[in-house]
Structures are given as structure tokens and as C-alpha cells.
Amino acid sequence: MYRIAPSILSANFAKLGEEITNVLDSGADIIHFDVMDNHYVPNLTIGPLVCEAIRPLTKAIIDVHLMVEPVDRIIPDFAKAGANIISFHPEASRHIDRTIGLIKEQGCKAGLVFNPATPLSYLDHVLDKLDLVLIMSVNPGFGGQAFIPEALNKLQAVRKRIDASGKDIWLEIDGGVKVDNIAEIARAGADTFVAGSAIYGAGKDSDPHRYDTIVSAMRAELAKV
Ligand SMILES: O=C(CO)[C@H](O)[C@H](O)COP(=O)(O)O
């Protein structure tokens, strides 16, 4: 099963509620919520208050990607704000196993995120405890960057490890995902596709159906895999 996860990083923040409703009405599956702290990454975005504000708008999964350091103290706030999945970077946690446990204690699913140069060895002793592995195909911090092709090798390697584990662990890709590369990314093993600029950059702001075409085009590519 493939899931399309628009990243609200590229949405029009002046109309965030509408942007979320419209993209879900267009057939997207989950909302990817990028949290940046101007410390772990050189950009600053949104926090638990915004998550809480959008929660009543939809029953869709809110998939929170924490690009913050330290990570543990903000996790309960996102859980209370209605996050369903909380993912973090191993470099941002002193105790990765403890952070995974903390996310689960709060009733959320836990994900571990790999930057382009982060080794997969961080999975060695925790894979079975994870619900999601997120492979970054750009360096984190900004939307609209080009896909780094080495991410395909990483996806293949993680796909093998997930399949060998026998667990239902989602394999998500984030960064530079477009209509013209989504099928290749799926063939490499991804099942969940974060796309920011490709989706939110589509169409005219005044058209409530502006995301239908791009989400349908992504689905059509995935149907070929
Ligand atoms: O986490 C991110 C950046 O750190 C964004 O989710 C990601 O870059 C998506 O944007 P785009 O699809 O425009 O590349």
C-alpha cells in the first residue's frame, strides 16, 4: 500500500486549514508536519500549538517529523497536540532507545530519520521497536531541494531489513519527490512519499481543486510499479 504525505512546509501558512483540507480532499493520505528549531537545522517552522490547531480538521494521520535537538522534552507536547506518528533524528537524541520508548508511552507511533550521510547502523538494535523509517533524500531544513540519488540505495537496504524483520514498518522518503521520480523511489522500496513543493507548488492558489491533478498523477505513476 502506498501513501502520499504532503509536507505542509510548502503550504500557504496564511491559509493552513484550507490547504490541509484541500490536499486531503484531493486524495492525499497523511499530513507530514515538519518541525524545525533553527538549531538542529538552519530553519524555524511550527510547533505543538499548530498541530493542536489543525487536529480537529481531519482524522487523517498527522506524521510529525522532528528536526529539533534536544528531542525528548517536546515529544509529550506533540502527543497531547494530536500527533499520530513522531519521528526523530538519531543525532538529536542521546538515548535513541529511550526516545523511541517515550514516543510509544505517549501513545504515538515512532519513527527514526536518516539524513543523507547518517549511517543505517543506527537501526541495528532498534529496528523491531520502530513503526517507521524515514530516509531523507535531501539535507533537512528546506523544501524545494533536488533529490539525492544515493537515497535509492539506502531505501533498498532498509527495505531488505524491514522485510527480514517481518514487522509492519513503514518506509518513508522525504525530499525532492516528484511525479517523474516517484515510481523509481517506490521500486527502491519506499511505501510512503513525502512531497512538499511538488504538491503545494501545483496550481493556482484560488482553485480549491488545484492539488487533484498532481496527487492523481503521483497515484498513476505508483500504479505502474
Ligand atoms: O523535511 C523536509 C525538509 O527538511 C521537507 O519535508 C522536504 O524537503 C519536502 O520538501 P520537498 O518535497 O519540497 O523537497
UniProtKB/TrEMBL annotation:
Binds 1 divalent metal cation per subunit. CDD domains: RPE (cd00429). Its EC number is 5.1.3.1. The active site is at D34, D174. The keyword Ribosomal protein does not apply. Keywords: Calvin cycle, Carbohydrate metabolism, Cobalt, Isomerase, Manganese, Metal-binding, Zinc. InterPro entries: Aldolase_TIM, Ribul_P_3_epim, Ribul_P_3_epim-like, RibuloseP-bd_barrel. GO terms for biological process: pentose catabolic process; pentose-phosphate shunt; reductive pentose-phosphate cycle. It catalyses: D-ribulose 5-phosphate = D-xylulose 5-phosphate. Pathway: Carbohydrate degradation. Catalyzes the reversible epimerization of D-ribulose 5-phosphate to D-xylulose 5-phosphate. This is Ribulose-phosphate 3-epimerase. It comes from Nitrosomonas nitrosa. The lineage of its organism: Bacteria, Pseudomonadati, Pseudomonadota, Betaproteobacteria, Nitrosomonadales. The gene is rpe.
